[in-house]
Amino acid sequence: MFVPCGTAARRDFKGFTLLMPSVSVGNVGQLVIDLVISTLDMPKVGYFYTDCLVPMVGNNPYATAEENSTELSINAEVYSLPSKKLVVLQIRSPFIKNKYRSFCQTVLSWVKSSKCARVILLSSSHAYQRDDQQLHGTPLRYLLSPTIQKTVGDQMQKLNWKEMEKVAAYPEINNAEKVLHIPGGGITKLLFTERILLSMSFSFVLKKKNWVEHQPAYSHFKKTTNCSKEIPMAVLLKFCSEGDNIPDALALVNYLNEWLQLIKNESSSTTTTASHWKIPSSWRLLFGSGLPPALF
Amino acid sequence: MATFFGEVVTALSRAGVDEEEAEREETPEDLEIRRELEKKRCRRRWGRDLLTLVLPTGCNAVAFLSSFILDSVRWEVVGAVSLWNEWCRTLDATNVLPTDSFCLFYRLISDPTVLLCQCNCHVAEDQQFQWLEKVFGYIQKKDLQVIILSTCPVTNYKTPESTLTLPSPFLKALKTKEFKDTICCPLLEQPNIVQDLPAAVLSYCQVWQIPAVLYQCYTDVIKLDTVTIETFKPVLSSKIMASLVKDVPESTEMLKKLLATNEIHNNIYT
């Protein structure tokens, strides 16, 4: 649940764009969110208190001086910048086993109740699972829900972005039927395909009747019930592998910036570079402590 | 990826959710097993309004409180939270031993608003939220303050120097925004974080604006150890703990007894 904090606590983000990460390969989405919060100096507006994430705490990961270094941070927090109509959810720990579906439900419910205009999900996918076509060209991809396609689809065309390809559901057997496949993407596919908000009673009915998506009864139920409402959602992702994922994060945040223009590019080049983004203080020692001198 | 010994193992993904896991639905049998496990996992047997909650977690923190604070004259047992997970060594819910999976609650007889919870068992990550609900669900949040003591391997501490050169054990603190009292040691610097039950409790206190402080001892000894236990001593001078401290000779005697008992239990021949 969202618990506001601070002096000007608000629960409603009407018309705002929500940026959130998927906990995915290389933690790229989470690194991007860190860069956005750190660079735009976004103030914390609340906590996303949930039993779905592994608990963790630490001091302020975006501290710039000793005065602001002692504020405690938890595993999921919300930051906001009203001047850019931007709200950001940062997730700092993995899901507890079997809790990711519950988390998706909770997040989608919160998005609806807080009246966010759209959600942009930042994610990544295993580079080693690319097919022959995907090995060439840009490793960056996007996905748009039908609602958001109408408003920004043209912009994606102008930016010359590449949409995430669907793959054959049964390779070598039937190449006609295509499905979305985002290996290593965490909850990306689940959130994107289930952005249609399901009420708890709807889910309960599905389980009771043991319905599955391709059955005609399922489609009829969805059409006739008034509890399904689509949340406009876009996914931006990068193909990558586990390792030093800071370059992947910088590539994805620049990709995001091409669209949202969160920071202006003052130079003549068309793309923002690494120097435009402020690396948070918590990114120190990402690969552990110093080495013992005796090792050498 | 290949390990040191040349075997090939699947590399773990930080995504945490595999496609196969995402698509596999739980059978009715899975749901029934989960329900039965949930019943066994966390049970509470007490409820009381209080103003101060002291929570040592782990054997060294528990031994520190047992030696320097707890005794059978001034404190009484008022309840327990029992839980079961894969780390449990017993399934018996009736005979409570110090090594069993119970969190014991002691109340100060002279001041019933002070509660101490000895948590010497492992609380699994998927039990921590439930544990919080069981414990804090029955406590008034107004005027409550919480102090948590915990230990952690020094190898988990991130520093530009090697951890081998650090003078361990040492104490670090984290506090919620509402905690205004003086703390007895330096704050834990970024990029260091805290996990497990102490993190769950501190997160709860931060979200619900309860003054709370965690004192975490970084140590290179994983078992019960005098040096690690005595690293917590500065905490005794804090406002919360100062009025609860026992006599020093009594504490020293208790500490020796605890260490001797532990050595007997750890002897592989008994």
From TrEMBL, chain A:
<protein>
    <recommendedName>
        <fullName>Proteasome assembly chaperone 2</fullName>
    </recommendedName>
</protein>
<keyword id="KW-0597">Phosphoprotein</keyword>
<dbReference type="InterPro" id="IPR038389">
    <property type="entry name" value="PSMG2_sf"/>
</dbReference>
<comment type="similarity">
    <text>Belongs to the PSMG2 family.</text>
</comment>
<keyword id="KW-0143">Chaperone</keyword>
<keyword id="KW-0647">Proteasome</keyword>
<dbReference type="Pfam" id="PF09754">
    <property type="entry name" value="PAC2"/>
</dbReference>
<dbReference type="GO" id="GO:0005829">
    <property type="term" value="C:cytosol"/>
</dbReference>
<dbReference type="InterPro" id="IPR016562">
    <property type="entry name" value="Proteasome_assmbl_chp_2_euk"/>
</dbReference>
<comment type="subunit">
    <text>Forms a heterodimer with PSMG1. The PSMG1-PSMG2 heterodimer interacts directly with the PSMA5 and PSMA7 proteasome alpha subunits.</text>
</comment>
<comment type="function">
    <text>Chaperone protein which promotes assembly of the 20S proteasome as part of a heterodimer with PSMG1. The PSMG1-PSMG2 heterodimer binds to the PSMA5 and PSMA7 proteasome subunits, promotes assembly of the proteasome alpha subunits into the heteroheptameric alpha ring and prevents alpha ring dimerization.</text>
</comment>
<dbReference type="GO" id="GO:0005634">
    <property type="term" value="C:nucleus"/>
</dbReference>
<dbReference type="GO" id="GO:0043248">
    <property type="term" value="P:proteasome assembly"/>
</dbReference>
<dbReference type="GO" id="GO:0000502">
    <property type="term" value="C:proteasome complex"/>
</dbReference>
<keyword id="KW-0539">Nucleus</keyword>
<dbReference type="InterPro" id="IPR019151">
    <property type="entry name" value="Proteasome_assmbl_chaperone_2"/>
</dbReference>
Automatic annotation (TrEMBL), chain B:
<keyword id="KW-0143">Chaperone</keyword>
<keyword id="KW-0647">Proteasome</keyword>
<dbReference type="GO" id="GO:0080129">
    <property type="term" value="P:proteasome core complex assembly"/>
</dbReference>
<dbReference type="InterPro" id="IPR016565">
    <property type="entry name" value="Proteasome_assmbl_chp_1"/>
</dbReference>
<dbReference type="Pfam" id="PF16094">
    <property type="entry name" value="PAC1"/>
</dbReference>
<dbReference type="GO" id="GO:0000502">
    <property type="term" value="C:proteasome complex"/>
</dbReference>
<dbReference type="GO" id="GO:0070628">
    <property type="term" value="F:proteasome binding"/>
</dbReference>
<protein>
    <recommendedName>
        <fullName>Proteasome assembly chaperone 1</fullName>
    </recommendedName>
</protein>
<dbReference type="GO" id="GO:0005783">
    <property type="term" value="C:endoplasmic reticulum"/>
</dbReference>
<comment type="similarity">
    <text>Belongs to the PSMG1 family.</text>
</comment>
